[in-house]
Amino acid sequence: MATRFNPSGSVSFDLVRGRVDLGGEHVLVPADALVDLCRNAGDDAVVDFGRRLGTAAGRRVAERLGDGAQASLEDVLEHLGGELALLGLGSLGLERWGRALVLTIDGGPFGQQLDRLLGAVLEGSLQRSFGRDCHAVKLVRDDRQVRFLITSASGASKVSQWLGSGLSYGDALTRLQKQAGVA
Amino acid sequence: MSTQEQIGKLQGLLARIQRNATLPRGGAPLPPPAAFAAPAALPATPPVAPAPTPAPVYVAPPPPPAASDVDDLLSAAPAASPMPAEVDVQLDSIPPVAEKPPSAAPEAEPIPLVNAAQPPAPEPDDTFSLDSEVSEVRVTTATREAVEVTVAAIEAEAEPIATEELSEDDLVEVTEGTPQPATTDVDIDFDDHEEQPPASSKRQVASSMDEALAAAAEQLDAEHEVPIKTPPPESGPQEAPLATGMGAPAAPDVDALLGGEVDIPTREPAIAAPGPTPEQLGQTIDLEEARGPSLELAEHQAQAAPSAAPVEELEIALPGREAGGGYDDNLQPPPEALSELEAHRRSLEDDIPPPPESLATLPSVQPGPAPVEVVPVQAAPAPLAPEVVARPAAMGTPETFASVRETFRPSSFVELLDASLALNGD
């Protein structure tokens, strides 16, 4: 049984030295400035940047959870969500569509932009926490929430192709499970 | 204003009079009084002085400045000059005529329009503080009589043109301040003379009332001559010919009508009064009273039994209830039913409650007489409610029949993650 997420002392501000410590030195950066930077950096650089952020968060989650293989859905959601909240990346949610794992983020700092950055953060955190190579595919986005499917590389490419052809994300998830012989 | 200007103004006035004289005389209404130019300063000039000629001259009283101004303007009226202000002077404000001294001029002598030997213009009098800004005076006459006098004066003074007619403004200019007695050139006889018919008129004057009535009757008959034949429909509505013979209405008695008041009937006699006519009243016969015993109407007796409803035609009255289930008393039951009737009779006897065990006291309820053994034959009763077949209770529990679909309930996050990664779409 994992302990509850306790963010006390997670962030320390050394005002004398002018530093912010969150399991390492961090920098408070305006969100819009980061958006402009990521726009000019390119997709691969944004993905790498996001994976770096997620890896750091996953490492802290793994430290708290201990044996991650026995962690329940609620435990992982609580700790991983807590870490993303400390980073200021929004509120994490979890959905299960049959056998498909869907993670949602509400109230991200970037509005309807840089969803690829958020997906990369999720990929890096899950890879670092549970040792699985996974891909986050954006299913749908509204003004408040963005929804990602966590799947393999081949599954991510097919779902992205279906979504690009106009298929709804619900139908895409159903088709994905039908082709896998599950549904 | 200089003398030359005054002379020029008078010449212009005469030219306008001559121009108007060429126009045909008519009864058109006089134009409204027009404004004419006046000297810049309107002095309260004294009345026109008597002319040196022996003709008597109108002597205006000393009076209101407006009257004097008009005389002055008449004597010196150059062409209208545009000035900034206008002053309307109503002649109604003139004091009463009685206050003025009557003119000494004889009636035969017209008042000269222009006095050639007019004395020099008096000095302007600023008594009324009329400065040079008041340059135009609009005079309005309110008396018709002054106009007539003025016409005579103008005719006498101007050229001998008989058809001279002055406009309203001209007349005012001349005669203002000289209200004359009501004398008119045109005599309007307001006496109500009877219009005489022309010589060619066919009207004849009746010498007496009888002749007039007879002539009216003839005219009426002549007007009522209508064609006997029915005109074509396109000829419009036609008057129907008068009825003749027995149906014709009686001719009115003219002499009788003349003796008293004449009532003009507003409607046809047949429609107006349904009662007898005055002629018929004299021929009334009084009927004798009926002979024999007098009859009186008795009160209406309420009908004891309601009569059967009238059967309408093409309807058949259904038989009554008594004809439905009754049997003749002499009718005997069939022999095969005797055993059943006997059994039924015995069962009824068994239903009679036994007498009370205690014979000392009578029961409060005495058994009634034995019922009459009449078995009414009734038709089969109609079903009042549907027959309900109760559903037997369900056996077992509902969850026994639940879906057999396989459910995926991951016990850990890693299990769900692995299952999701397994969905590769192959």
Give an overview of the whole structure.
The complex is a heterodimer of chains A (about 180) and B (about 425). Chain A is α+β, with helices and mostly antiparallel strands. Chain A has one domain: 2-Layer Sandwich (Muramoyl-pentapeptide Carboxypeptidase, domain 2), CATH 3.30.1380. Helices cover about 50% and strands about 20% of the residues of chain A. Chain A has six helices and seven strands. In chain A, the strands form two sheets. Chain A has a four-stranded antiparallel beta sheet with strand order 4-5-7-6, with helices on both faces. Chain B is mostly helical. Chain B has a domain of about 170 residues. In chain B, helix 3 crosses helix 4. The two termini of chain B are about 125 Å apart.
Number of domains of chain A: 1
Secondary structure class of chain B reads mainly alpha
Number of strands of chain A: 7
Question: Quick one: biggest sheet of chain A?
Answer: 4 strands, antiparallel
Topology:
The complex is a heterodimer of chains A (183) and B (426).
Chain A: E1 12-14, E2 19-21, E3 25-26, H1 31-41, H2 43-65, H3 73-87, E4 91-97, E5 100-106, H4 115-130, E6 135-141, E7 145-151, H5 153-164, H6 169-179
Antiparallel strand pairs in A: 1-2, 2-3, 4-5, 5-7, 6-7
Helix pairs in contact in A: 2-3, 2-4, 5-6
Chain B: H1 3-22, E1 35-37, H2 65-75, E2 85-90, E3 134-140, H3 144-157, H4 168-175, H5 209-223, H6 254-259, H7 269-272, H8 278-281, H9 322-325, H10 338-350, H11 413-422
Parallel strand pairs in B: 2-3
Antiparallel strand pairs in B: 1-3
Helix pairs in contact in B: 3-4
